[in-house]
Amino acid sequence: MASVTEQGAPARAASDVAGAPAAQTPLVDVRGVTLQYKTKDHLVTATFRVDFQVFRSERFILLGPSGCGKSTLLKAVGGYLQPTEGEIRLKGEVVQRPGPDRMMVFQEFDQLLPWKTVKDNVMFPLRATGLSRKVAEQKAMHYIAKVNLTNFAESLPHTLSGGMKQRVAIARGMAMEPDVLLMDEPFAALDALTRRKMQDELLALWDDTKFTVLFVTHSIPEAIKIGSRILLLTPHPGQVKAEINSLPRDTADGDPEALQELERRIHGMLFADAVEEPVQEPQHE
Asked: How far apart are CA 131 and CA 134, in angstroms?
């Protein structure tokens, strides 16, 4: 049975975290983070005092309904948005700006440079860090092979399917060998069959490399399948509702009753409360 930490419960020790040894230092440490952004007329609170920790080699999921601030949280971990309150640390250092230690994969298919081949798209950030063309090419081809696109290395993005484009984006992020791969609903725009295949391929890639991933989704089945731990966020503004250990991989694949039960529990926790209207505060000059 998946274990649950409800909102307001004491933080769990590292030894309680699935796959995390005792006294392990968190890779990502989010403490009391409130995030706000401005619209034309209002100051919108996206998240309110959110806490969570991600440990090395975890598959950590941010799950919640649309508008709960999960993508905004991901951007803040990436260094693209500074908290109004609280702090985000990576390996003990406060995150203040984007960096190659955090690579993002988005859901849009147009995140690739259309005039560059698959290989050159993967090489582009590597070359930007100062690697020689030879070393960058070797590393790019290594990760292109891991996503099964070796035969398409010289292809341009417009010749690829949506799933293949997402594989290129994943290879590009992993080639940088970041501390954490940030994935913002990367399979949301794919058809159901391709989405399932991409989930399986991502897990196979994780089995091979044990990379750390922070993954945003609003799909409960996807969260259970991809994640080792799942953070549930309330409707806007996003607050921590609960933290859940997902099912073991063999249980999720082979025990449909356990899977359905966990889906029901998560759905019940996410939607037990009425959806609140977005909090909007007048801006002051």
From this structure: 8
Return the beta strands (E) in 150-271 as ranges. 180-184, 213-217, 229-233, 240-245
- Are 185 and 105 within 8 A, CB to CB? no
d(CA 48, CA 192): 33
The chain-wide mean pLDDT, for the chain, equals: 87
The C-alpha atoms of residue 83 and residue 98 are separated, in whole angstroms, by 14
Give the tens place of pLDDT for each residue, 231-269. 999 988 999 999 999 998 877 677 888 889 999 999 999
Domain boundaries 4-101+180-282, corresponding CATH code: 3.40.50.300
E-strand spans in the chain? 4-6, 28-38, 42-54, 59-63, 85-90, 93-94, 102-105, 180-184, 213-217, 229-233, 240-245, 280-282
Give dist(CA 271, CA 233) in Å, integer: 10
Q: Which residues contact 246 (CB under 8 A, 6 or more apart)?
A: 2, 18, 61, 223, 224, 227, 228, 229, 230, 252, 262
Question: Which one is predicted more confidently, 216 or 2?
Answer: 216
State both tokens at 99.
Answer: 């960096």
CB 30 within 8 A of CB 52: yes
- Helix spans in 107-191 (H): 118-128, 133-146, 162-175
pLDDT digits (tens, 9 = 90+) for 207-229: 999 999 999 999 999 999 999 99
Take residue 241 and report the two structure tokens written for it: 């509702």
Q: What percent of the chain has pLDDT over 90?
A: 73
Whole-structure pTM value: 0.85
Both tokens assigned to 11: 């933080």
